[in-house]
Amino acid sequence: MTRLMVYTTSITVFTVSIAVFTVSAELHQNTLTVDATDRENWAYINLTEGETVDIADAASSLAWDLGFKRTEVIANGGVSGPGKTGALALKDISFEDILEAPEGDYVSDTDQIATFRRGDGWYTYTGPPNHWVLPNPQVYVLRIARDSKAQPASPYNYAKVRFIGYYENNETKEGSGYITIEYVLQDDGTRFFVESEPTSVDPKEKVTTTWAAIKS
Q: pTM (2 decimals)?
């Protein structure tokens, strides 16, 4: 009698999950005019959103970056807020030529003096007969604390800021208390003020690598 031997082959099926990860940084470039005409209350802005924000308690809020009240300007750090924002004032270099935030001692607001009033300050007052407020030709680089959960991991974002004017109409110098700034904010945690190329993982390369790992 012939016996029939039946062999059962167990087949294990590996499911390979293919994920394509893309990291794309964004440059926030904006020119923003802030109504700082109120002599009692601050006008706050968020540089990432590019707009003014309503802040109930600036001392405990991370939702604002800069505050304006007439010629006064504060940053969210030091005695002004919990954001740990510091600044460097750069002279003798144009806004466009600053492609990377420098290393250095970024200074936050203190009880004695605000960041934007150090050195020559952000403006010059001409005195009589015109009594104009004119922005000084310098650029501020800001170091702004990031969300601890932001990816890629980095403690700070950087922005470069320059002041353009103090009037609703800067040509005729009419309507004082309207501060206009131009800024570039890099949100990827690097020091560079240039567009970075998105980085990704090639699906085919990912599959090859995965199967190689399975075989081993």
A: 0.77
